[in-house]
Amino acid sequence: MSQSFETILRKRFGRRALFGGTARMIPLAAFAAGMQQRGSAADSPEAVPASPEEPKVAERDAARDSRLQFQPIAGTTRDAVVVASGYRSDLLIAWGDPLFNDSPPFDPSRQTGRSQSLQFGYNVDWMGFFPLPAYEVKNSSHGLIVVNHEYTNPELMFKNWGGFENQTKDQTEVELEAHGLSVIEVMRDRSGRWRYIQGSRFNRRITATTFCRLTGPAAGSRWMQTSADLSGDTVMGTLNNCAGGETPWGTAISGEENFHQYFSNVNGLPTGPVRTLHSRYGIPGGNGSYPWARHFRRFDVAQEPNEPFRHGWMVEFDPYDPTSMPKKRTALGRFRHEGCTFQIARNGRVVGYMGDDERFQYMYKYVSRGVFNPFDRAANDKLLDEGTLYVAKLNEDGTGEWLALVQGNGPLTAANGYPTQAEVLIDTRGAATLLGATPMDRPEDMEANPVTGKVYVALTNNTARTDRQVNKSNPRANNRFGHILEITEDDGDHTSTKFTWEIFMLCGDGKVASHGAFFAGYDPTKVSAIANPDNIIFDNKGNLWISTDGQPSSLRINDGVYAVATEGPERGNVKQLLSVAVGAEAASLVLTPDNTALFVSVQHPGEGGKWTDNPSEAISNFPDSKQPARPALVVVTKTSGSPIIGT
Ligand code: FEO
Ligand code: CA
Ligand code: CA
């Protein structure tokens, strides 16, 4: 090769595409794979963006043309998706909708595991948008949506639910099949309306009974072996899929978050190192939150003490191949994964940012050993198996370090319980604690700005932090409202082991002085009240979009979707675009590549209530004014058809 890797990629994709954010990068990467397969279109005008821009020019341009034009809505408690003037919201798909030609009609009073396995799952969370035809990078009117189904609400789902003690095996089977993920083909018709396509060959359900392969350093470890899987490399199911990410090579990756709650310890406690490990991850010593262990022995820790070690991972699969087996990538560590968002570093390595969503847990990043190959999609398969996992330590002077979670590094020795890298990864939390990582206020989504490269972290809340535990990066005791951190990697290099950080936002109602809200220096009385930031994305101009989880208890308004400029004179000016139904969380959001459509997942509408046949008694009747309320995806567009941010 006569030209360097970077030169070739610059030529093909332009600087901002190459070093830009996920939304821009993934289709282009997939496009490169497609180009090689077809051997055409490589030099079409659309495939080669403008010449490289210097960062300062790019930042200045972004600040100039990135203004969010919409008039924010007022926070509301209406049982509906409410959007700003000039926008519309349409239902795309909801729990129970048929995915396949042989899917039975949704009958909530007579669900079975089989019917649910052929229908759209329950509590929707993260979504990825994967353009179609495969690798048509700019296609914003046709694609696949991959969506997580995080958990189930049996009290809302089942007509005759008898509580934890009396939940039947049939009901449990429905729950198992309502978890996992869905892949749906979606398209925009001539009138501009989006719909999903029942019977598409791409449609797929991955559930708590789908077999997944364990890969990476912890695969096959003795800790992974169970009576059903003596090899320790094949797991039935993926659980509590919360947030996720799109890899540069066009696959989806989904985080297993609160996996602990499905396990119970029916017949007594295992003792010794296993119990210590389980405690660190919240595996219950008695009943869990779900009674699954009563019907399926793999969820009974007393019988299968190693089964929990096979969950809590990032799970990757190819949405373009409905037969592909999901892979649990152990090199990315085991914790309550919120998601993983990717950057390609200057040297071609792939960097993934991840949060562990529990109070006083940590922020992580993964750096691949090998480099991204945009010309051979399959060549990237090992990038998430071979690399280094780091955890963040934040110093009080605004600097920080990424500490390597590598066996043999400092205290990560056999004497401390880490004889191999497998133990380091299975007990990521314990290893991170030994290294001195900084406990944060529920780190959820982490994502880099495609324009500036700065990394943002949504810290949802932490009401358990005391006055004695505050520090500069988690500055509030009883943190009800949450905050957002802004991280700048040294030299703008995503592989750097040093960084600086600052508080971007302290959430709350800026008009209420006692909330102590701060919005990057913007007048706090002039912004939308916001709390409990959860999933975040960026638009193509570098504005941060935030979905919230928990505002009903903190601000007494429904959860919603907000946008905020990160640079320029509008930096910190938070505007609310949308509010979701009662009881619901605005769990996640994704934009089409051209930013003209914003998909929003509305999770757990009606939560706090229970099954009723009478809509007038229900907390929520979203989305179709009847019972039961159904978790759903909606698509938000401008009535003018222009990009979501405005002009
Ligand atoms: Fe499932 Fe941390 O949200
Ligand atoms: Ca979340
Ligand atoms: Ca959440």
Structure in words:
With 647 residues, the protein is of the alpha+beta class. It contains 11 helices and 32 strands. Strands 14, 15, 17, 18, 19, 21, 22, 23, 24 and 25 form a 10-stranded antiparallel β-sheet that branches. Strands 9-8-13-12-11-10 form a 6-stranded mixed β-sheet. A 5-stranded antiparallel β-sheet has the order 1-29-28-27-26, with no helix packed on it.
Global geometry = globular
- pLDDT below 50 for ≥5 consecutive residues: which ranges? 1-55, 57-63
Task: Report the strand count.
Answer: 32
Strand-residue proportion: 25-35%
Ligands bound to this protein structure: MU-OXO-diiron, calcium ion
Please give the radius of gyration in angstroms: 23 Å
Determine the number of helices (DSSP H or I, runs of at least 4 residues). 11
What is the typical, i.e. mean, pLDDT? 91
Q: What fraction, in percent, of the residue positions are helical?
A: 10-25%
How far is the N terminus from the C terminus? 44 Å
The class by helix and strand makeup works out as: alpha+beta
- The number of domains: 1
| Largest sheet: number of strands, sense, barrel closure | 10 strands, antiparallel
